[in-house]
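Hi U.,

Before I forget, here's the chain from the pilot set. I'm dumping it here mostly so it's searchable later in email.
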Amino acid sequence: MNKGLNIIFQALDADHVLARIVWREQDSGGGSLTLEIPVRSAASAPKSNAELQADARALAVRFARAFADTIEG
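Structure:
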């Protein structure tokens, strides 16, 4: 996997999907941060794939900033 943010959606059941958000700081070596968040599926709360990607990206950025603040503090 390359440096940056990768978002994968996996169906859990009729009403939920699992958003797997992976953040890597380096192309090789180093660590990665993976969040797995169950969310309502498009069938129960209609959103386009682009909207789901944007929501997941915003959540990942907020989490990464909070995580960095915790380490620095």
